[in-house]
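Exercise 3.2. Students should predict the tertiary structure of the chain below and write it as structure tokens, then compare their answer with the key that follows.

Predict this chain's 3D structure.
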Amino acid sequence: MTFEDIPDTSISDTSVADTNTPDTSTSEADILDTTYENNKEQFYISEIPDDIFEKMQGKSYKADCTLPRENLRYIHVLHVGFDNQVHEGELVVNKDIADDVLEIFKELYESGYQIEKVRLVDEYDADDEASMSDNNSSAFNFRFISHTTKISKHGMGMAVDINTLYNPYVKTVDGELSIEPANATDYVDRSRDFSHKIDHDDLCYKLFTEHGFEWGGDWTHSKDYQHFEK
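Answer key:
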């Protein structure tokens, strides 16, 4: 099974508010509540299916991966896209955060919070830059921290990135500003007001931190505005 195999038409095209701020109007809140109640079975955690794990081989689950398969979980969710329609999404995370991540995505969905894509990074051959530049939200991707033998939080399945194009990773390296993804230059200035920006007032920030995650936007030596980790 690949992400492309999952048709969006399996879920009714329910319109929601074009905002990352929860809509408090009774009518739209009722619509969102009903949609969730009718599709609760779309939110679930399982061990990684064999067909998914096969597609991860040599990509997110590399030959030198030291994390056992049984420590990872597959999560299936619904999310509201930038087109104001309901889409299906997939993540792989560490079993230790699976319940938290599922609950967060449930609450984001119920609130109409817009996330453009939630695809396994394997759809991009586990190329982080390609995934981020396409504004894909993802989690597990085994790798070591650059120039170290320490596994990254994503390599442990303990981190989730959300709306990556609008919330880049920014760091000064040898006096030069490094931006990941490279096409996110318009979103480096966080004093600007623009859609899909994660900050301390954003629902995504509030939910992740309430569940005990650390936000990369609070780091001092670099800023990773898309990144939540435990």
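Discussion points: Strands lie at 44-46, 72-80, 86-94, 159-161, 169-173, 176-180, 214-215, 223-224, 227-229. Residues 40 and 214 are 28 Å apart (CA to CA).
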